[in-house]
């Protein structure tokens, strides 16, 4: 008499939900529009995993925290034991440390490696459908089930999938969230009190992975302008780094004012779909993993017959935490960029006191070492 969850999005939040929900006894189907998993190139994200995320992943992998070299998470990641904020004065050619946290105890991973690890360890009751583009859903009249339409990208065929729960793990531009919050559209620079708009977070970053084993890079036409722009926009050190990076790409970053709910009937938001955030507090991946773990525990606690209580508890545990963390990450971003703040002068790294730098430390992120009740037993 098991229940079935359909997860839209097979990135970190989606795969994490597949682990957590199958551990709670649910059958899980994941729909992912990409045609296959990433193949080896680590281009893109370098992720910081906090100790709680590592512990949760260990539980999904069935290994202990202290398994050392036989621990696949340990092998796929690097220690990130110190967190440091550094300032540079280009004119004086000086760099100095603003703050330093010696007991950081995070692990650093390439997105690809973490994704591969989570994907490769999924249990058999998870069906992962690559190349399936979710297009729409509708709820049964009694809200007992949800039916999804998805396009199989290779054949153009439309398939229908029925489940008891729809998990939206479709990222910061989530089309599922959009169904419930049609006003939650991208607005440049606009802030409206009371309505949570998706917000372009004031900058975009050029990103890429520099392969130190390659002496000369081969510039393509597409990246040529990006590299020329680097010369005029960035510090010489960054411009040099970007010029040496063979495949940079533009990664626009969004955040959003916190939502006031995370579920509607039997549709629930997780990961970036639930709380788009800027990267300044290394939270988004950790939040996604924690969302999944808490959702799984709530479903397990309330049993498949009481979905409403399970989703209510998930929301009450996660919403206050993610809301504060998103706003804190936004604030830290504004501090780091020297932008205006409502309660103090713009941060100036050259004049900043120890107290001024205090807020930059990761350990001051709200709920930094907090473990939700649902994960304690
Ligand atoms: C380019 C990039 C760089 C990043 N860098 C960092 C970083 O350095 N550090 C960090 O902590 N975090 C980083 N992040 C964020 C981090 O990867 C995410 O927070 C984390 O992966 C969890 O996000 P998510 O799974 O909720 O969403 P995403 O990772 O955005 O995944 C959403 C998934 O949904 C799929 N999808 C969307 N719509 C549909 C649809 N209609 N049908 C089927 N599938 C659909 C997408 O293909 C995608 O796989 C980065 C994200 C991106 C995109």
TrEMBL record:
Family annotation (Gene3D superfamilies): 3.30.9.30, FAD/NAD(P)-binding domain
InterPro entries, per the entry: DHP_3-monooxygenase, FAD-bd, FAD-dep_OxRdtase, FAD/NAD-bd_sf
Domain FAD dependent oxidoreductase, chain residue ranges per copy: 5-61
Taxonomic superkingdom: Eukaryota
FAD-binding domain residues: 259-326
Pfam families referenced in this protein's UniProt entry, alphabetically: DAO, FAD_binding_3
GO molecular function annotations of the record: FAD binding
Family annotation (PANTHER family): MONOOXYGENASE-LIKE, OS06G0597600 PROTEIN
Name under which the protein is recorded: FAD-binding domain-containing protein
Lineage: Eukaryota, Viridiplantae, Streptophyta, Embryophyta, Tracheophyta
């Amino acid at each position: 008499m098991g229940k079935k969850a359909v997860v839209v999005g097979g990135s970190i939040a989606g795969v994490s939900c597949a682990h957590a929900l199958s551990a709670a006894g649910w059958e899980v189907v994941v729909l992912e529009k990409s045609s296959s998993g990433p193949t080896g190139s680590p281009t893109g994200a370098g992720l910081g995993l906090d100790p709680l995320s590592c512990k949760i992943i260990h539980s999904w992998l069935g290994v202990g925290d202290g398994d050392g070299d036989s621990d696949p998470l340990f092998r796929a990641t690097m220690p990130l034991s110190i967190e440091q904020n550094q300032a540079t004065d280009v004119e004086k050619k000086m760099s100095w440390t603003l703050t330093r946290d010696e007991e950081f105890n995070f692990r650093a991973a390439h997105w690809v490696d973490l994704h591969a690890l989570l994907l490769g360890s999924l249990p058999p009751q998870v069906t992962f459908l690559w190349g399936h583009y979710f297009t729409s859903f509708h709820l049964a009249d009694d809200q007992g089930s949800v039916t999804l339409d998805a396009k199989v990208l290779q054949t153009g065929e439309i398939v229908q999938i029925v489940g008891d729960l729809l998990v939206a793990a479709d990222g910061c531009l989530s089309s599922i969230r959009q169904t419930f919050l049609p006003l939650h559209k991208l607005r440049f620079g606009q802030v409206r009190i009371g309505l949570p708009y998706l917000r372009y977070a004031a900058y975009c970053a050029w990103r890429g992975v520099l392969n130190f084993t390659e002496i000369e890079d081969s510039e393509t036409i597409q990246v040529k302008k990006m590299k020329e722009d680097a010369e005029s926009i960035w510090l010489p050190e960054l411009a040099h780094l970007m010029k040496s990076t063979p495949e940079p790409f533009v990664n626009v970053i969004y955040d959003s004012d916190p939502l006031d709910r995370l579920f509607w009937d039997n549709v629930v938001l997780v990961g970036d779909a639930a709380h788009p955030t800027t990267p300044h507090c290394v939270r988004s991946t950790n939040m996604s993993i924690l969302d999944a773990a808490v959702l799984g525990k709530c479903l397990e606690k309330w049993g498949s017959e009481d979905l409403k209580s399970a989703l209510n508890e998930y929301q009450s545990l996660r919403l206050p935490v993610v809301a504060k963390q998103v706003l804190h990450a936004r604030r830290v971003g504004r501090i780091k960029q020297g932008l205006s703040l409502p309660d103090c002068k713009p941060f100036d790294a050259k004049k900043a006191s120890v107290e001024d730098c205090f807020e930059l430390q990761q350990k001051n992120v709200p709920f930094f070492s907090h473990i939700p009740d649902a994960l304690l037993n």
